[in-house]
Amino acid sequence: MSKFAGPLRLGVNIDHVATLRNARGGDIPDPLRAAQLAERAGADGITAHLREDRRHIRDDDIDRLIDGIGIPLNFEMAATREMQTIALRHKPHAVCIVPEKREERTTEGGLDVARDENKLADFIAPLREAGCRVSIFIAADERQIAAAHRIGAEVIELHTGAYCDAHAEGRLEDRDRELDALRKMSAHAHALGLEVHAGHGLTYETVKPVAAFPEVMELNIGHFLIGESVFRGLEPAIAEMRRLIDESRA
Ligand code: PXP
Fold first, then answer.
1. Residue 21: which residues within 8 A CB-CB, separation 6 or more?
2. 206: Cβ below 6 Å to ligand 1?
3. What b/e string do you get for 57-84 counting C-beta neighbours within 10 Å, with b at 16 or more?
4. Is 188 marked active-site?
5. 164 lines ligand 1 (CB under 6 A)
6. If we measure between CA atoms, which residue out of 112, 150, 156, 117 comes closest to residue 134?
7. Of the residues 107, 112, 121, 240, which has the maximum number of CB atoms within 10 A of its CB?
């Protein structure tokens, strides 16, 4: 790793605390309480996705999160008019534009910025004018990075799901190829002046090689941490992730 690598921010995604709450309706477990514990455990930001079907956070969680935490909120959303209106009303610190399909279990791929370039350029302009840092969630693909750069995004988040899936399924050649693409594309995007984030599917086993890329400034991690918190508690689960990231970056 380059000796010039700076500190790496950890964004904790609390969507799956909300998923658990929504399984019963009502108010428990409270995603705000999870966000406050994440902050105490060393998270640098909180990520939450307001999906069209509201299966994760609900509309009333947005202000509760913004008001109830002392770290920035990274608001994940699809590129729809409804979400743009909501984001402009709340003006979170950062907005991450993700693809969204109703039938998917999680965000399955990156955004096709190259296909929807003009539409996305118009879509993000008011968000940027409102002072939100706009991030685009994409695969480690040179075409998509070039398009994200052209539309004026300040940040890209590289989708680490294919790398993590290959690791989990023991497809080691695929895993190494995916990791190599993430490494090269992080450096390429950074050279264009984009801030590089990464996330999706990261675990204690997969986080270190990605954390070691000096161009990556932020990792966003959710599902694994919320699952792990069932066994060891949320703060220890996050603190261990923080430790692994810092170790990789040292
Ligand atoms: N980054 C983005 C843009 C995402 O959509 C998600 C999943 O909501 C994550 C990071 C976190 O992924 P995971 O929950 O698998 O850690």
1. 27, 28, 29, 30, 31
2. no
3. beeebbeebbebbebbbbbbbbbeeebb
4. no
5. no
6. 156
7. 107
Q: Are 63 and 30 a contacting pair, CB within 8 Å?
A: no
Instruction: Give every CB contact of residue 179 below 8 A, 6+ residues apart in sequence.
Output: 163, 209, 210
Ligand 1 pocket, residue 51 CB under 6 Å: no
Q: Is residue 90 among the annotated active site residues?
A: no
Give 98 Cα–ligand 1 centroid separation in angstroms: 10
Ligand 1 atom with the smallest distance to the CA of 201 is: 15
User: In this predicted model, what pLDDT tens digit does every residue of 73-120 receive, in sequence order?
Assistant: 999 999 999 999 999 999 999 999 999 876 677 777 799 999 999 999
Q: pLDDT class for 126, splitting at 50, 70, 90?
A: very high
Among candidate residues 123, 120, 209, the one with its CA nearest the CA of residue 166: 209
Q: Is the pTM of this model over 0.85?
A: yes
* Interval between CA 15 and ligand 1 midpoint (Å): 9
C-beta of residue 96 within 8 angstroms of C-beta of residue 157: yes
Domains and CATH numbers, the chain: 9-249 (3.20.20.70)
pLDDT at 5: 59
Positive or negative torsion for Cα 124, 104, 169, 12: positive
Helix ranges, the chain (H):
15-24, 31-40, 59-68, 81-90, 117-129, 142-150, 161-168, 172-191, 207-211, 223-232, 234-249
Q: How far is the CA of 221 from the centre of ligand 1 (A)?
A: 6
What is the CA angle 238-164-55, rounded to 5? 65
Is residue 223 annotated as a catalytic residue, yes or no?
A: no
How far the first Cα of the chain sits from its last, in Å, is 9
What is the CA(207)–ligand 1 centre distance, in A?
A: 13
